[in-house]
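User: Sequence in, structure out. Go.
Assistant: Echoing your sequence, followed by the structure tokens.
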Amino acid sequence: MNEYLNYINNQEALQVVDIAIETETGQHNENQIRGDRARPLDVHRWSDYPELNACLNDIISELKAHEQRLRQRNEKAEKKFRAAVRCLTLDLYVAWKSDPTLLIAVARGKSHFSKRTRYSALYISYDEFIQAFNGLRDLGYLEIVYEGFNDRQSEVSKTTRVRATQKLINTLTYKGSLTIANIRRSPPNEPHEIIIIKDNNKQMIDYNDTVITTKMRNDLNIINKNLLSNWIDIYLSDIELIELQRRISARTSDSDNNSHIIDLTRIELHRVFNNSSWDEGGRFYGGWWQTIPSEMRKFITINEKDTVELDYSGMHVKMLYAEVGEELTGDAYEIPNLVAPRPLIKRTFNKLINASGQIRVDSEFDADKIGMTWADFIDCIIKHHKPIDKFIKSGHGVKLQKMDSDIANSVMLRFNSMNYACLPIHDSFIVIESLADELEDIMVEEFSNLINKDIDIKAKDIIEHVPHSNNAIDMRMALRESLGLEGDYKGYYQRHSEWHTRKYRGA
């Protein structure tokens, strides 16, 4: 219990109750919307069902009446205008549902729309997007919190920050019957790219498909389709979920890059390769469960069932020893005569493998407690793993990531064939608790298939979430008691009801 409560500041946790109440009742609290946190607009939002379509028709009719155009749009422009209205309204809604204090960064320069690549939303164009944006602003559906700017002299720029208004939230909620469960990624006939490759500057680059990239995309489409058929959520009370959101969002301030938030609509995965090479990186990203602290993943549920997380023990070290034809014995991160926390040793070793130069002193390194300098600490780790010292500061880690991502792909496909969801977190996986033995066997088999070596599997902590079980371990009760609150789970069960409604309606 203490581990969970250590990061809770009672005063701040009580302050989020107001936001929880306003969010639950569909009301804004304008004084609590800050302007220092934002994420980019996600143009790949999609939802399509009768009530929402009727609601969007009404909004679009209102926009057209406001425009007073002399000439009607042609069919192609009309389609793009509607797509722009849909993506703007849906993403503003998702941001508000995820965190009422979160703003959306919207790039309105023409240059952001001119370059067309496989990563672009081809159903969105500049003219229609700006027309939709301006109309929604003029009619009070979105609010500009502050205008963006681009100072060419200082080379400092910032995109415009916006948020949904109460008018938009009410319209989508009550007229459109919109819920988070109804929102997905991209229209079915124009899917977004899920196989991504970046250059040395971490910029996405275009590429021509090959047999290999096509197979990777086909595999991932199968995996994503299966994930979308399951209800993946986190069993926390409304108060706890908001506090967790606050804790995660505190990692970043305002940014044109993605802020750290829990966005429960993010179920589908994508793969990211690095350094313009299909042999480097390739790990899976995009799942909301990858954004939460590791100790909170025990609260994840799949189809209302408790889950277990298993991870590979010393996976990359094992791979390196296999590569040089040596056998690793014992725990890779337990080094004789080195009195230091195992996580610190593991983290430092991984940095040594991933880096191509010097690495910074770890924030948790304490020379007095460990009894040596940072340089001596690193030297001790290197000497312990002398058989593989040629990989130190070689940047070889991204090649290992390609190997562990291929193993992850195989593990997930195995569970797909059994019609079960398997959630990846790089070198660990989350499945329904009753499938723990199957997961362990499959992880060992797939590692052996690629590396031709055995490997140990470790289980993370398990917490039962059964609300009415006398034996359930409920860390949340301690939080509620410490705050004098009851911690309602209304949000969790409401999301459950909404997901089943969508599933049976086929939206």
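User: And one key feature?
Assistant: The CA atoms of residues 20 and 479 lie 16 Å apart.
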